[in-house]
Predict the 3D structure of the following.
Amino acid sequence: MPERGPDFGRTSGAADARAGAAGARAGASPLLTVAGVSKRFRGLLAVADASIDVRAGEIVALIGPNGAGKTTLFNLIAGSLAPDSGSVRFAGREIAGERADRVCAAGIGRTFQLVKPFADMSVIENAMVGGFRGTADRERARDRAARALQALDMWTLRDRPASSLTLPDRKRLEVARALATEPTMLLLDEVMAGLRPTETDLMVAAFRKLNADHGITILLIEHVMRAVMALAQRVYVLHHGQIIAQGTPQQVTRDPRVLESYLGSGGVH
Ligand SMILES: Nc1ncnc2c1ncn2[C@@H]1O[C@H](COP(=O)(O)OP(=O)(O)OP(=O)(O)O)[C@@H](O)[C@H]1O
Ligand SMILES: [Mg+2]
């Protein structure tokens, strides 16, 4: 991936809608609890004793510089990697080290940072890959995929080959595939990277609707601060594998450690 820093774009606007119905509805007990999780790749401690909580109904963002360990933390939650130590609890059950398909079956849908749709398959067929979660019924999978495409405003693209999609549309398709698994919680890894501000706003609106109308809990990795400020009720900041700050978007964007390591000038590596 190209090196890039936080993208503030135009930050005016959507923050006011953040404390919406879903935020007020967020339950008191965590849906996801990551406690003291670490992951080492040979000499590199990619995630170092990281702990985060996400309550049911919340939208939480995970931000930090390139290489901070954000995607690795997602992989540890979603079962792509097993942690060296620590615990990951989801809906009251330990899932650390469980297989990715089992984690998905438990209700966690995730997107991949590098999107790789099946190029020769149509948009709806790609979304159906998610729709087959826990079922072999083609109609059921198609119905789930259709609803996911509609939620992301992609229905008119359903019969196009995935290879014909622009990068932003491939990213939306990646979200649709994850959504078609009918998750309780979505993990979104930089799905708004490379979008224009108007496209970002549409994606933000779609996520807010999924959260408010369908109660889907969202944890998103995002460099597009316009989207983070508009969506997240709380933000965690990861740096060198460690959570160095957490709080509301306003709190973390004023935190001196965050300014130094990530948001400040020249602080992104
Ligand atoms: N499978 C792996 N094997 C070895 N090193 C890895 C592996 N996956 C990630 N790393 C390293 O771990 C560190 C954290 O990577 P990670 O992809 O989690 O960062 P990130 O915060 O998602 O960065 P970005 O914003 O660029 O996506 C990096 O130094 C990366 O090179
Ligand atoms: Mg990443």
Q: What stands out?
A: Residues 1, 41, 44, 46, 64, 66-72, 113 surround adenosine-5'-triphosphate (ligand 1) (CB under 6 Å). The beta strands are 30-41, 44-55, 59-63, 85-90, 93-94, 108-110, 185-189, 217-221, 234-239, 242-247. The longest helix spans residues 197-214.
